[in-house]
Amino acid sequence: MSPTSNLPAPPAHGHVTFLGAGPGDPGLLTLRAVEALARADVLVAEPEVLEVVRAHARGGVDTPQPAGPDEASVDASSVRAAANLVMAAARGGRRVVRAVAGDPGLDTDAAEEMLACAAEGIPFEVVPGIAAAVGVPAYAGVPLRDAQGTDVRFVDARTASDRCWTEVGASDGTVVVSTTLETVAAAAGELVAAGRKPDTPMTVTIAGTTTRQRTWSATLGTVAQVLKQAKVLPSPDGGQAVIAVVGERSATAQRDQLSWFESKPLFGWRVLVPRTKEQAASLSDQLRSYGAVPHEVPTIAVEPPRTPQQMERAVKGLVTGRYEWIAFTSVNAVKAVREKFEEYGLDARAFAGIKVAAVGEQTAAALVAFGVKPDLVPSGEQSAAGLLEDWPPYDPVFDPIDRVFLPRADIATETLVAGLIDLGWEVDDVTAYRTVRASPPPAETREAIKGGGFDAVLFTSSSTVRNLVGIAGKPHNVTVIACIGPATAKTAEEHGLRVDVMAPEPSVHKLAEALAEFGAARRAAALEAGDPVTRPSERRPGARRRRAAP
């Protein structure tokens, strides 16, 4: 036996993925990037992309971040610290994702880290991302090439040499300049000094591909004046990134027709959604598709019933064959029954032989996640009334049992119970959970609600109106109030709120759609009148001054 055979084996080298997180929009991450993040043991990300990539990392991933002079900046010392974190984790045999803004192939620091991995024999891969110089103009509605095949040159103003400026100034192609808000006018001056005409069209975009994006059209000679008139203030750290597109034949003059992103009906609107993140997932996604920034604030909390014996008897009745149907009217009802099943060591197989109804698509999805496919989901309106429209009457020939188990909230209405009884069914109406008023949101959120920091609020029930006003105060009068139906609107008006939007039918998705139509009409009216397109929150006193700093 070798004398060294009892020594511990050195740790196998890990693996590093250099990942491009794109220019800011989380939706621009590639499928390959999402796969790599899901497998990572360690995630080292630049501060500006950390939240974008962390959402796709697995639970428990280690996210050590290099210390810099402040959270929003990246200097040479923090870059070295990040590199040290990457190498230390890889040497320890861990899978590391090193996430950078844009594309790692255009990041000189990432290239240095790749060389360090190669020198030590650490395997690595590169997952490309969309570079800001390409992605931001696309989101700003500025195609970089025309039918004549315009030449396109890319310049980083922060590192460009005099020779570089001379070369791009002498060309007549499109120039994409990566710079900062503080130096964009100086970059325009460099191009004029190098031979470009002062009246050459130019667009300037900040916060590109995010819902904070703003774009201005100018010329090389007027850009400083345009930004000054727009009252755009530099960011406190002096590093607000800018992508500027310059060129006679670029599509800057057609931006009004091509600006697809900033012209979304709710672009940049902060919309308050009085639901938990879990409940609001599909609604928030829909709002984002309209350009909005949803902010979920739960107004109710769910607690177990005060007397659990009724629920316990009903669940046992499911197993012993007491019921023909079980009807779920909410995701919370599914959760309550599932938790009781787990308490008794049961699973979805306990539903064998029992018909299952769900009041709508979200409730049905919760059942499917539990392993139960509903037998009945309303074909029309997703509500208790819609469920009753499709519910079959009791037939003693075909239905051996005449009883329905209805687990629901303590404050639920009697619509479904009465309707089922009218159809000939016996109903065990069981309190599966209690709804209580949620705790107040953070002070910052409360101030935004009362001070007009939100552009709109979606009220999905009368209780959400009462509870939101109770825990956070009444929304400011500039806030657009959208209600799911007449009863909710009446409650809002009783609380002194002006109702601006009403859903055409009681559906949260129809409510969001109605809000988008309201936003589109508001935008069209401003453009027709020749007024600037602003958000509702920008109408409150002092808002324009605060808005100036992006």
Write up this protein.
- With 550 residues, this protein is of the alpha/beta class.
- It has 4 domains: 15-130, Cobalt-precorrin-4 Transmethylase, domain 1 (3-Layer(aba) Sandwich), CATH 3.40.1010.10; 133-258, Tetrapyrrole methylase, C-terminal domain (Methyltransferase, Cobalt-precorrin-4 Transmethylase, Domain 2); 270-299 and 439-547, 3-Layer(aba) Sandwich (Rossmann fold); 303-437, Rossmann fold (3-Layer(aba) Sandwich), CATH 3.40.50.10090.
- Helix content is 36%, strand content 18%.
- It has 20 helices and 19 strands.
- It has helices at 31-39, 50-54, 76-91, 108-120, 132-140, 162-170, 184-193, 223-229, 255-258, 281-289, 309-320, 331-343, 361-370, 384-390, 415-422, 443-451, 462-472, 486-494, 508-529, 543-547; strands spanning 15-20, 42-45, 95-100, 124-127, 152-156, 174-180, 201-206, 214-219, 241-246, 270-273, 293-296, 300-303, 325-328, 355-358, 403-409, 426-437, 456-459, 480-483, 501-502.
- The strands form 4 sheets. Strands 5-6-9-7-8 form a 5-stranded mixed sheet, with helices on both faces. A 5-stranded parallel sheet has the order 11-10-17-18-19, with helices on both faces.
- Strand 10, helix 10 and strand 11 (293-296) form a beta-alpha-beta unit.
- Helix 14 packs parallel to helix 15 (415-422).
- The chain is globular and about 90 Å long.
- Mean pLDDT is 88; it is low at 1-5, 7-11, 68-73 and 544-550.
